[in-house]
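Worked example 3 (structure in, sequence out).
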């Protein structure tokens, strides 16, 4: 694009984005999968976001939305991007109604920053996805991203009770309320959760909160095999204990069970969990700095580098599937590790090796998963892999409904094109 044309576009964009907005030409640091946006805007208000979208729609410019940038390589490889729209300036806690255990938060606020504010009243959002110091509320909701505490507290979809969003045509819509029992418009909030930003740009979201527990213990059990891990995990899930997390990691095989409550309860439950492990493995109870360190090491599985495939299956079939993956990866010359929700059947499989071998393994895994009982989604992978194999895999009959909704919200398909489920 000629410099004069870019300058003219930037001038018009700045007028729409509003006072205090950061507007500039795209650079190398903004590129995703080698695709550099022509323009970058970071409006300072929700009204500025809406006006920017309306302008982009009138100019027929494609828009990619970004918060902390931790999930920009999720989904299918992007095509040409005209405008990168950042929510980073929308970073405040709008209101914390601590007496009602609810809070309204702007989309660009990092999770760790939000929890620090909520923590002043002994409350929190009980999510622990990767990179909480960077991952923003909007990005977490848009991808329905979760961490180990999903076992006890659910996903963002289970916590959201209200949302304010900007549509591609510049209209601002609100749904839900500020109290847990108010469900008016609740479906829209849940519809946006997991939509990968393809329907609208989240401006604020309202959540129900949980009290921050006064005490925590983690039981780490090291076992000899995935088969032993399966046995222990099944017994933990079937017990009367109430862990907030039951995590499996393989390479080598181990389990982590976390208990969060009052001191007497977590101590008693941790001892009971060790008894369940028994002779099948070596168990240890961790607290304080040791506990924090073990969870940090566990989170390193999601650090940059390597392919991540989100495997979802019924819990009873998880470990048999992991064992099959272990053997198939070795036969294909791939390095493999796995970590995730043992009690829910949702783990991230990490692969390293030639893209063609990875593509073959993902295809074989999808063929092995029973229809309606499992999926394998590429959460992170290089452009070559994501061009060789569809990152989402089979969607099923729901794809027709999703396409119809996309047409209603974004008929010109300008917002996050191709990034949503099935390439919406």
């Amino acid at each position: 694009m000629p410099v004069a044309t870019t300058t003219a576009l930037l001038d018009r964009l700045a007028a729409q984005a509003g006072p205090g907005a950061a507007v500039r030409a795209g650079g190398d640091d903004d590129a995703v999968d080698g695709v550099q946006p022509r323009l970058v805007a970071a409006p300072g208000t929700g009204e500025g976001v809406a006006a920017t979208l309306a302008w982009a729609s009138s100019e027929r410019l494609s828009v990619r939305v970004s918060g902390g940038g931790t999930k920009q390589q999720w989904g299918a490889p992007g095509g040409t991007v005209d405008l990168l729209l950042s929510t980073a300036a929308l970073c405040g806690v709008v209101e914390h109604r601590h007496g009602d255990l609810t809070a309204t938060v702007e989309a660009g606020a990092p999770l760790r920053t939000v929890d620090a504010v909520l923590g002043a009243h002994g409350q929190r959002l009980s999510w622990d996805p990767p990179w909480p110091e960077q991952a923003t509320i909007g990005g977490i909701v848009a991808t329905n991203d979760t961490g180990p505490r999903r076992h006890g507290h659910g996903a963002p979809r289970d916590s959201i009770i209200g949302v304010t969003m900007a549509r591609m045509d510049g209209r601002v819509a609100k749904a839900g309320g500020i109290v847990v029992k108010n469900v008016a418009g609740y479906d829209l909030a849940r519809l946006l959760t997991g939509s990968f930003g393809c329907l609208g740009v989240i401006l604020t979201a309202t959540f129900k909160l949980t009290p921050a527990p006064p005490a925590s213990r983690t039981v780490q059990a090291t076992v000899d095999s995935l088969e032993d891990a399966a046995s222990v995990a099944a017994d933990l899930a079937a017990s009367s204990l109430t862990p907030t997390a039951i995590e499996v990691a393989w390479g080598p095989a181990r389990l982590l069970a976390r208990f969060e409550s009052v001191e007497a309860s977590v101590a008693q439950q941790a001892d009971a969990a060790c008894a369940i492990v028994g002779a099948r493995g070596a168990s240890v109870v961790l607290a304080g700095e040791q506990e924090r360190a073990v969870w940090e090491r566990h989170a390193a599985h999601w650090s940059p580098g390597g392919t991540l495939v989100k495997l979802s299956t019924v819990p009873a079939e998880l470990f048999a599937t992991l064992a099959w993956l272990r053997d198939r990866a070795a036969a294909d010359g791939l390095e493999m590790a796995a970590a995730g929700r043992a009690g829910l059947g949702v783990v991230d499989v990490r692969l390293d090796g030639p893209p063609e071998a990875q593509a073959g393994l993902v295809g074989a895994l999808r063929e092995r998963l029973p229809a309606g009982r499992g999926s394998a989604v590429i959460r992170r992978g290089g452009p070559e892999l994501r061009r060789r194999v569809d990152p989402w895999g089979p969607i099923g009959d729901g794809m027709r409904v999703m396409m119809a909704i996309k047409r209603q919200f974004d008929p010109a398909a300008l917002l996050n094109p191709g990034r949503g489920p099935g390439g919406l």
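Notes: The chain has 14 helices and 19 strands. The radius of gyration is 22 Å.
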